[in-house]
Amino acid sequence: MRTFKVSSVLVWGAVAFFLVNLLALIATVVVNSFARSWFDTWLPTEYTLGRYAEAWQEFGLLQVLIVTVIVALAVVVVSVLVGVPAAYALARRNFPFKRVLMLLFLLPILIPPITYGIPLATVLYKFHIAGSLAGVILVNLVPSVPFVIMVMTPFIEQIDPRIEAAARMCGAKTGAIFARIIGPLLVPGMLAASILVLVRTVGMFELTFLVQGPESSTLVVALYTAVSAAGIRSQQAVDAMAVIYTLSMVVLLVVGLRFINPTQLVSAVREEPRD
Questions:
Q1: Which of 30, 103, 137, 213 is deepest in the core (most CB within 10 A)?
Q2: Is the pLDDT of residue 75 over 60?
Q3: Contact criterion met (CB below 8 Å) for 35 and 44
């Protein structure tokens, strides 16, 4: 007869308790977002889609979504354009204080964003950049560029440098080597880094909240403002906004997990057949 350890039962019981409470919380928010009203009953007595229309108009979700998409795409493009060449230099070159530089790149990823976000926001307010779309993009680049460097550096290290040396011996210029050899090999890694930066930027609250203005608020900050700001708001409309935000994050994560697996991509490069 198979025996069960008490510790295993306790662990699985704690996990099940956590999951049940988490699913109950999510289900409550989703159901409430479709309710016309919900008081003192197990389920709402009437359902409607009007709360989503109410949230769309009251919180200006169209403008918020447009700003969120612009900020996320701008951060992704700039992070890749800056981070990939920097990662290539770190992977291929040895120079003094290289380890110190790598540690500096790690700091914005390891430490909480609020610790450097406040002095960074102070600088941006001093130069009148905070409160604008450019300020929100700049502040989100601080952790995103090092993140791309950290993702791309081990990926580039897996590419055999003898491939580049062989191309140079055949007369290929630096531009041609990057365009025809290194670039195609780096596309999967850049795609992985882009998806991860996109998810991180859409969900970044602390840095965006510190420098956002009336015309540069992203979805996660607008959701916080809808919950905490003064005034009377329909709880169902706030929950509808929360459902929209959660669905956008779930879609991004599903797309990322469906097409991106950095570990497999690195293995694929490592197993690339050599001529």
A1: 137
A2: yes
A3: yes
